[in-house]
Design goal:
Blueprint: E1 2-5, H1 15-23, E2 30-35, H2 47-56, E3 61-66, H3 74-80, E4 84-88, H4 95-104, E5 108-113, E6 131-135, H5 150-163, E7 169-173, H6 181-187, E8 191-194, H7 196-199, H8 204-212
Parallel strand pairs: 1-8, 2-3, 3-4, 4-5, 5-6, 6-7, 7-8
Length: 214
């Protein structure tokens, strides 16, 4: 199980220390939630934070764009250090084109599905998808409770990917805990995003190790 701690929940006043902690942990990816205040009712951070973290780590930077017209910024996120670039299905009028652009820039291409978006949305782009991100909360804020229907949705995404012969990894973001992680894995998840669970823990590296060992 790949663990991708979300920088959204990190202590921004001590970001270098937080990244150093992740560097020494079992986390394989570092997750970024980029929010524009339009697609979701919240603002997060942009290129300067991503660039700063890139200078502090060699781990893959898993960048999730919760923003309208993400195609405007694909090249800039590549230059800022993104390894994986995930766009929201609901935000892309020309999703096929956006995924091709991401892959041509030698990044992994991801598609995120909001809780109301069916797994079947991936049908025509599964062959271009490296990461299928199942949102198990409504995007925009950290610390939300896992939506129970997400287990079935993860299974449906896995079935679709298998049927389409897609090797895409399934990533799950939102409300992941040590209690529900085994069920999330059993449903078919390959990658777990964890924010407040990690960064509010007394011993975050232990929490990451426990998640990775699920």
């Amino acid at each position: 199980m790949i663990i991708a701690p979300s920088i959204l929940s990190a202590d921004m006043a001590n970001l270098k220390s937080e990244v150093d902690m992740l560097n020494a942990s079992a986390a394989e990816w570092i997750h970024f939630d980029i929010m524009d205040g339009v697609f979701v009712p919240n603002l997060s951070f942009g290129f300067p934070i991503l660039e700063a973290v890139r200078r502090c780590t060699a781990k893959p930077l898993d960048v999730h764009l919760m923003m309208v017209q993400p195609e405007r910024y694909v090249e800039r996120f590549k230059a800022a250090g993104a390894t994986i670039l995930t766009v929201q299905y609901e935000a892309c009028t020309h999703l096929h084109r956006v995924l091709e652009h991401i892959k041509k820039l030698d990044m992994k291409a991801g598609v995120a599905l909001n809780p109301h978006t069916p797994a079947s949305a991936l049908e025509e782009v599964a062959h271009l998808t490296d990461v299928a991100l199942v949102m198990s909360v409504n995007p925009g804020f950290g610390g939300q409770t896992f939506i129970e229907n997400s287990y079935d949705k993860i299974r449906r995404v896995r079935e679709l990917l298998l049927r389409k012969n897609s090797p895409a990894a399934i990533e799950v973001d939102g409300g992941v805990t040590l209690s529900n992680a085994p069920q999330v894995k059993a449903a078919g998840a390959d990658v777990l995003v964890a924010g407040s669970l990690v960064f509010t823990a007394s011993h975050p590296q232990e929490v990451i190790a426990k998640l990775a060992a699920v």
